[in-house]
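Work Package 4 report. The design task specified in the project plan requires that, given a folded chain encoded as structure tokens, an amino acid be chosen for each position. We show below one input record used in the internal validation round.
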């Protein structure tokens, strides 16, 4: 009988390094928000991939940055918590940005937090730079930390991801699988649905508002015809934000709802009826309950 393996892999890096894109590429399904804006990953979303006899569970941590608000501080604490609990750590940097001050700060923290956990360097977005630049960057970063391996990939296009996946499958510990074979994420569908809607809002709104809104799935009803009715509330922090989220004549929220419904239906493989409401909740950024729903600890945000 073939020995099975299973373990957790933490994705660590600066905001926008491509962690969510890599997770979705590895899992083969969209389980983590991917947008052009930094700091869209709030919950520690776990994506589950199968490679041969191994089950690899990815923990997509929030991008590590200098926290200012309570939510920021909780997210950074969650990121390092995800790294501390993992069997393998992947440290992502962007090829075209190189070894930034932020990346150096993360490496300093890796020395403190990684312990004996193997850390692989993953240089992402390799299609944006020339080969000689990549080799020079790899050498430079490897001089700062003892990485177990270095991988050069394009998470968006899939280049190099098979080699990385094979290595991870061999690295995770021997043991029984942690999740059912057909499961791609350990988040409930209610939260995945809320994350999909929040992504569409983030893509649509180009101001500071995306960081001051949250989406909750208030009601989920399974219909007899196999479809699902999903009612969600978009909470904004200020009265002025409500009008922006709704848009002129409700066109913004209508477009967001259509895009979210289409993606959710594709994800679930059946029809979805999505209904969105926008409400002002001025203090949601300071409510412990909101943090718990995002997989964050409210107390971690204490200054």
């Amino acid at each position: 009988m073939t020995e099975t393996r299973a373990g957790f892999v933490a994705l660590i890096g600066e905001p926008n390094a491509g962690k969510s894109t890599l997770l979705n590429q590895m899992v083969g399904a969209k389980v983590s928000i991917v947008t052009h804006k930094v700091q869209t990953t709030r919950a520690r979303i776990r994506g589950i991939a199968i490679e041969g006899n191994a089950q690899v569970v990815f923990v997509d941590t929030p991008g590590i940055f200098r926290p200012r608000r309570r939510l920021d501080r909780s997210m950074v604490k969650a990121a390092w918590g995800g790294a501390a609990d993992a069997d393998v750590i992947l440290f992502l940097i962007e090829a075209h940005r190189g070894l930034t001050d932020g990346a150096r700060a993360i490496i300093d923290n890796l020395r403190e937090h990684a312990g004996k956990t193997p850390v692989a360097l993953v240089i992402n977005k390799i299609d944006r730079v020339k080969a000689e630049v990549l080799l020079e960057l790899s050498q430079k970063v490897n001089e700062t930390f003892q990485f177990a391996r270095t991988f050069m990939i394009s998470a968006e296009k899939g280049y190099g991801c098979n080699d990385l996946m094979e290595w991870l499958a061999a690295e995770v510990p021997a043991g029984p699988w942690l999740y059912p074979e057909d499961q791609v994420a350990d988040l409930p569908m209610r939260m995945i649905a809320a994350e999909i809607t929040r992504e569409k809002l983030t893509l649509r709104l180009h101001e500071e508002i995306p960081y001051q809104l949250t989406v909750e799935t208030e009601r989920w009803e399974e219909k007899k015809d196999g479809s699902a009715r999903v009612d969600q509330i978009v909470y904004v922090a200020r009265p002025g934000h409500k009008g922006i989220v709704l848009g002129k004549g409700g066109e913004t929220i209508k477009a967001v709802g259509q895009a979210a419904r289409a993606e959710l239906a594709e994800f679930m493989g059946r029809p979805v009826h999505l209904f969105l409401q926008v409400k002002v909740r001025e203090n949601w950024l300071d409510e412990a309950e909101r943090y718990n729903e995002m997989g964050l600890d409210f107390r971690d945000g204490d200054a």
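The domain at 189-301 is CATH 3.30.300.20 (GMP Synthetase; Chain A, domain 3). Validation will be extended to a larger panel in the next phase.
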